[in-house]
Amino acid sequence: MTMEEGTSNSPSRCELTEEDYEAFQWDTREDCEVRQILDRVADKWSLLVIALLDRNTLRFTELKYKIDGISQRMLTTTLRHLERDGLVKRTVYPVVPPRVEYALTPLGMTLHQTIQSLVTWTEDHQSEIALARAQYDKRVTA
């Protein structure tokens, strides 16, 4: 098994109960799997892939077409990482030319629910955020 860049090959665990939770615990311990997982699922390309695969099975070219600005290499890398993490299932059909489809796994579907909550919050509060940004920019440039 090859290690992903930036990961440690030593076993690591960041087991804290909710009472012991410290906001920066996952940010300061680089060997913490929580940090690695958050880095993966919070990545903009991963979020977009997961959102597009909600209740859909898509081919690579369909994903590439629907994700504005993603390179073929970045999409390949993102899909491999999501598959490795058990969030996306890759199905290869033995036809010529080969047909490959991607779908969310049951674990990936649970993550999509969380992402949808974040999107809903953003939609509900976008005008407040826009106002806060405008006020901040006015203060900083004045």
Description:
The structure is a single chain. The chain has 142 residues and is mainly α. The chain has one domain (33-141): Arc Repressor Mutant, subunit A, CATH 1.10.10.10. Helix content is 55%, strand content 10%. It contains six helices and three strands. A three-stranded antiparallel sheet has the order 1-3-2. The radius of gyration is 19 Å and the shape is elongated. The protein starts with 24 loop residues before the first helix and ends with a helix. Residues 5-13 have low confidence and may be disordered. Keywords: DNA-binding, Transcription, Transcription regulation.
Number of strands: 3
CATH class: Mainly Alpha
The amount of helix comes to 40-55%
Distance between the termini: 55 Å
Q: What is the alpha-carbon Rg in Å?
A: 19 Å
**How many structural domains can be distinguished in the coordinates?**
1
* Percent strand: 5-15%
Biggest beta sheet attributes: 3 strands, antiparallel
Secondary structure category: mainly alpha
Stretches where pLDDT is under 50 for at least 5 consecutive residues are 5-13
Total count of helical runs of at least 4 residues? 6
Query: What is the CATH H-level superfamily?
Result: Winged helix-like DNA-binding domain superfamily/Winged helix DNA-binding domain
Chain-averaged pLDDT: 83
**Assembly classification:** single chain
Shape category = elongated
The H-and-E topology, N to C, reads as HHHEHHEEH
Query: Would you identify the CATH architecture?
Result: Orthogonal Bundle
Q: Would you tell me which CATH topology applies? A: Arc Repressor Mutant, subunit A
The side-by-side strand order for the widest beta sheet comes to: 1-3-2
GO molecular function: DNA binding
Keywords: DNA-binding, Transcription, Transcription regulation
Protein name: Transcriptional regulator
Organism: Amycolatopsis decaplanina DSM 44594
